[in-house]
Amino acid sequence: MREKLTQLTLGLADVIFGKEQQIKLALCAMLARGHLLLEDLPGMGKTTLSHGLAQALGMSYQRIQFTSDLLPADILGASIFNTKEQQFSFHKGPIFSQVVLADEINRAGPKTQSALLEAMEEGCVSIDSERYMLPTPFFVIATQNPQHQSGTFALPESQLDRFFMRLSLGFPPADAEKLLIKGIRPQRDEDKPAIVTCDVLKKMQSQVDQITIANTVVDYILALVTITRHDKDIAHPLSPRASIALAQGAKAWAFIEGRDFVMPEDVQAVFTSICEHRINPHDSYSQANLCDDILRRVKVPL
User: Fold this and answer.
1) DSSP strand pairing (87-92 vs 77-82)
2) Residues contacting 4, CB < 8 A, separation 6+
3) What does residue 130 show for φ and ψ, rounded to 5 degrees?
4) What does the pLDDT look like over 118-127, one tens digit per residue?
5) Do 58 and 194 contact (CB within 8 A), yes or no?
6) Is this structure's pTM higher than 0.85?
7) What is the pLDDT of residues 128-144, one digit of tens each?
8) Please, are residues 134 and 119 in contact by the beta-carbon 8 Å criterion?
9) Strands 124-127 and 139-144: what pairing?
């Protein structure tokens, strides 16, 4: 498994240059069975990363471009009347893929956003009183533009909380951007075989579940989330869902680092990516700075 995980990390490094940390965090989210939110300016490689993940894992992939006129049926599918058979038949939408890229999710209206997020939470969709199971593994990568850009609908806090992790790719390092300027593009061979199969990914996810987390580390996680519930600078504190995500994310990070137990450093490595989109500070703080402040204020167990 360690060799496969190393191959996967190196393979994705050939797809998107100079973003090793973000690649590890994206893999961490997938190993923890969580959905990923990418917030960044256009042209930063968000689509490239999502497509590279699907290809490296041999998973079916669909991209949905969110616009203001997109309807829930455009995502989930719809029942269409068959005149020959005189009955309705369900036509599956693009949500029935293992990796779904919801591109610019905050350009669609709240009703359409909710349709996607319900599918993420339940692992199935309900159409005309019928339930249809989504494939497994099922992984949503949603991208959103900064909220100051025109034509965006901000995701409510209750919906943001359903995303396991939020990442920002940021501008590439100078040496990586120099390669792009010279015309050296990331490798995107459609016929390239998968590095890790879905069965191997499921085994990795099961191994992550078996990672040991000591009571001292659990108490550390509790201390981190509790401090947000008694801080006057935080309007929306961390929920129990965030506590569970921190524990599962720390397990996945420990697995990536080659350990079968969680250390406080694993919690710290994933804390900002898992928590900053869940807390809503007052104007005097940015979300990232507040996460750093929380980590400094809570004593690390020995």
Assistant:
1) antiparallel
2) 195, 196, 200, 204
3) -105, 140
4) 788 888 888 8
5) yes
6) yes
7) 778 889 998 999 998 88
8) yes
9) unpaired
Please report the domains of the chain, with CATH numbers, ordered by start residue.
34-173 (3.40.50.300)
- Contact between residue 278 and residue 234 where contact means Cβ atoms under 8 Å apart: no
Hey, how many other C-beta atoms are within 10 angstroms of the C-beta on 36?
24
To the nearest 10°, report the CA torsion of 169, 174, 176, 177.
Answer: 80
């807390």: which residue's tokens? 279
Q: Residue for token digits 């990442």?
A: 167
The one-digit pLDDT tens for each residue of the chain (302 residues) are 778 888 888 888 877 887 889 999 999 999 999 999 988 777 777 888 888 888 888 888 899 998 888 988 899 988 887 787 778 888 889 999 999 998 888 888 888 888 887 788 888 888 877 888 999 899 999 888 766 555 567 777 777 888 999 998 888 788 878 877 887 766 655 667 788 888 889 999 999 999 999 999 999 999 999 999 988 778 788 989 999 999 999 999 999 999 999 999 999 999 999 998 888 765 556 777 888 889 999 999 87
DSSP collapsed to 3 states, 82-151: ECCCCEEEEEECCCCCCEEEEECHHHCCHHHHHHHHHHHHHCEEEECCEEEECCCCCEEEEEECCCCCCC
- Across the chain, the runs of DSSP E, i.e. the strands, are 36-39, 61-65, 77-82, 87-92, 99-103, 124-127, 130-133, 139-144, 165-167
- Give residue 17's Cα distance to chain centre: 19
